[in-house]
Automatic annotation (TrEMBL):
Keyword line: Metal-binding, Zinc, Zinc-finger
Gene Ontology MF annotations: zinc ion binding
Residues annotated as transmembrane: none
Basic residues compositional bias, start-end: 202-211
Protein name according to UniProt: Uncharacterized protein LOC107769714
Region (Disordered): 202-222
Residue span(s) of domain SWIM-type: 110-151
Keyword Zinc-finger applies: yes
Annotated source species: Nicotiana tabacum (Common tobacco)
InterPro entries: Znf_PMZ, Znf_SWIM
Gene assigned in the entry: LOC107769714
Biased composition (Basic and acidic residues): 212-222
Length: 244
């Protein structure tokens, strides 16, 4: 971090871990991205932004229709209790929990031995000392070891939002297609509304399509150097002082 930008470390420490680390976040994020959504949309409609406004809106409507229909179809074809993404992680943790020793302290508190490591699982609070159980809201491998040892159902300890039924509800509202413009029913108050151009002065240069990337995201090309003198800018063949 300090190699990229020395100013970054004190700034991140000052604002607090909960602002940039999911492990310290005071809000449960449930493995769902909650930032950079605007950048994802902008990357998708980069070329479409050159279109006139009506054609651009038509493009965005078709894009949202496609996404919504694809995700709804994927959820309908899923036969597991959890969505595809979460069911895969669910089963990976199940496989990783093999050959672990479980020592019960109470009905809700357990010690799970993973080699020389000792992990504490609390079923009442849904936590594990490894941090994955409460952070992902999905049973970690240590919690899975407890479930198998006590013959408990692991599905009840998964987040409400990971269930396939709830994923279906997310996409139950379709993006309706638009009829031809001549068939539109436009209210009178909308027709009488006068839309003026925005106030402001436009820059002389052409609008930028891409954001300015920081130094941490730039890709640096590896330079070549001469194998004789070790300096950059030329190679062995173009070395002027090479012996003849």
């Amino acid at each position: 971090m300090c190699k990229i930008d020395p100013r970054m470390q004190p700034y991140l420490f000052e604002i607090g871990y909960e602002r940039w680390s999911r492990a310290y976040s005071k809000v449960k994020r449930s493995m769902v991205m909650t930032s950079n959504i605007v950048e994802s949309i902008n990357a998708t409609n980069k070329d479409a932004r050159e279109l006139p406004i009506m054609q651009f809106l038509e493009y965005m409507k078709n894009l949202l229709q496609q996404w919504n229909n694809k995700n709804r179809k994927s959820a309908m074809e899923t036969s597991t209790e959890l969505g595809k993404k979460y069911d895969k992680l669910f089963r990976e943790n199940l496989i990783a929990s093999e050959q672990m020793m479980v020592r019960p302290a109470t009905e809700k508190l357990y010690t799970v031995l993973e080699g020389v490591r000792r992990n504490i699982v609390c079923l009442e609070e849904g936590t594990c000392s490894c941090g994955r159980f409460q952070m992902d809201e999905l049973p970690c491998l240590h919690a899975w070891a407890v479930f198998k040892n006590q013959q408990l159902k692991a599905g009840q300890y998964c987040s409400f939002y990971y269930k396939n039924d709830n994923l279906l509800r997310t996409y139950e509202f379709s993006v309706n297609p638009m009829p031809y413009e001549s068939l539109w029913v436009i209210p009178t108050e909308v027709l009488e509304d006068v839309v003026l151009p925005p106030k402001g002065r436009r820059n002389v240069r052409r609008p930028r399509k891409e954001r300015l990337k920081p130094a941490s995201e730039k890709e640096y090309k590896r330079g070549f150097s001469c194998s004789v003198c070790g300096q950059s800018g030329h190679n062995r063949k173009t070395y002027r002082n090479r012996p003849k």
